[in-house]
Structures
1.
Amino acid sequence: MKILTGLIVILILFSCKEVDCNDVKQAFYPDEYNLIVNESNIDLTWIKINGFTPISGERSEIMVHNNWKLDSNTFEQGDTIMKRKGTLDLTVHKKDTTLLFNWYCRGKPYK
């Protein structure tokens, strides 16, 4: 039993490799957001936003990994969150200002 446990631990350790930012960013490139925030729930791992699209007025939601290092105070009701297809930057339009957030990979801003 100890041998089997030891083999499992070794397999897990060898299967862990460093994240390739180019591979990870490919998952985020096709995403596009344009949403007026109604409710937001943000932690170190996830961004969850409920709201509606400004053009159609349809209810929509976003749930993505928090690679922009946003915190729970980033959004207020009525803010607009935008991310264009083919880019990694996230833009937040507030009543009196616009905020631009870089996408992070392995702790550093990535373009």
Note: The longest strand covers residues 33-42.
2.
Amino acid sequence: MNAKEELLNELEGEMPLCAYLGYAEYSDVSKTILLKKGYTQKDWNNFLAQLDFEYDDGYGTQHLFGTVWISETIWMDRYEYDGSESWQWLTCPEIPEELL
């Protein structure tokens, strides 16, 4: 699997607010890939270039870790379940009326 293509497919045209990703070939994170809030087009291109690598997305050890913030209340988190890894979209829950 190509990490860059996988992320772009998951984003479906959304532009992230920022991102903190790590890549581990075995058990230790060997590469950290950052996209800081307020990034420029050059920063975005550099971020994508760093993600342009192939990794084994089959069952086994998780290789890609991290979080991509889409907004202040929506983010994608990388997770592994039963040897398979993927992106999970999360949103901050609304505060219940009785707490307001």
Note: The longest strand covers residues 74-81.
3.
Amino acid sequence: MMFMFLFLINIFYSFGLSWLSFTDSHIDLDYKANSPDNCLLWSKIGTKCCRQSSIPLKPYNKVSKWGNIKCDIPTLLFEGIINWIKTNLYSSYKFDFIINTGDDCSHKDISQPFSNINIKTINYVWNVIHNNFPNIPYYPVYGNHDEVIVDQTPPLLTSLFISKSSYNWNKWIFNSSTLQYGYYSQVFNKNLKIISFNSIYYDSNNIFKINNTKNDIKRINNQFKWLDNELNNSLINNQQVLFLNHIPIGGSESIEYSNYNLKLLLEKYQSIILLNMNGHTHNNRFTLIKNTDNKYIGFSMIPLSMTTDNHFPGFRIYTYNNNKLDYINYICNLTTIILNNKILCQYEYTFSTEYNISNINLNNTIQLYNNLINSPNYFNKYYSHYSIGGNITNCSTSICKQQYINEIIV
């Protein structure tokens, strides 16, 4: 019996885990081919163009049915990428689960309060994933653009919104008592727990933001206390944790109340946190997290967004084998897709080989940061992946380099 137990443990660690990760899809359900990519109204408050009702502003181009790097993406592009992943990558990686770190919905803020477009979009994404991968657990996160009014969490409206938009998630998430607030945990197996944090309550743009413990307790059952309990249980049970959170610690829109409390918990439980996964910034980057004593206590990984925010769509596949974490980055060249009239994605790089490290962990991430400072070769690689497909300018000056290096430390 003991032999069989050890044999099964050995199988788990030799085969390890792999998972698909994407973020910030920003799908526009009303995207219209041949509409303008430059518009007379609303372009500067996040609504962008590419709809039938858009009023063109010269100079402009007509957008392709596949998408445009100035616009949120059409359903055709999103469905095509997910299907391409299933057709071309699943047989090799056999994903154990799929992670989406938020912002399924478009930037067209004005229409959101007057329709169910965000609920429809979140349910649409779930359906596309489920239709392609019906037997693979799917773990999503709420992003700031996923709210019923962007960035806002009006108490009664938010509860109703979460109930309607997370209904399908219950296939894979069984902790319904906390899902009502848009955060949850799910034990994947005895070695791993998934924790999804809802950062939108602490968004600086949120009129209804929570910025003290009293309101945290009153409004959302004290998310930080809940997170502490979940992490402590994982520590007791010798579980590693994947921590999912849309807005990164120290990122734009993350208030100090959230940054402070998350840093405390990250430092307290850093021994069991396998990876801190974020979205929100749309760029391919990482952060290093310091406490008040200027000591490194953690790191996070942020992939290129699925949406074409002046770059090509991107996604990642993470692998965890023999206690070694790594990821493989893929991009979908929109120019090539439009020219060939079909979805074509491609391998871009593997993190460990690109940056000459053995494993993604805190020490190696610190070393990578130091290499970016001291080696032009490392920095040029990092910069070339940061926003691939857009109008990337030369970044050879010390001022330009420092800008990208400074944003790593939070």
Note: The CA atoms of residues 73 and 224 lie 34 Å apart.
4.
Amino acid sequence: MDPACEFDSAITRSPNNTGPVLDDIGYPFIRYWWKEKPDCLEPLVDYGLTNDIPDWHSAEVVLIPKADKPRYDIVKGWRMIHLLPTIAKVVERIVLLRIA
């Protein structure tokens, strides 16, 4: 598959109801960037796939208490949500497309 088609597919499959997370970049910004300057975004993704960008491997963990748990001083009383950088999620979708 053409890299432009892969990126377009990954962008269009990304959700609309999420906000910017760890990197303060949301999907609407990436969609706009892709629409206006696709020649700038593809080299960034290619660079990120060939070189190990440390920021793409960082995550923020948010703990949410589980409902109806008698104790919150033990680990099983909490649920973890991992917030990842948005561009890393798009690249993850591209890699999944390539594997499939």
Note: The two ends are 11 Å apart (CA to CA).
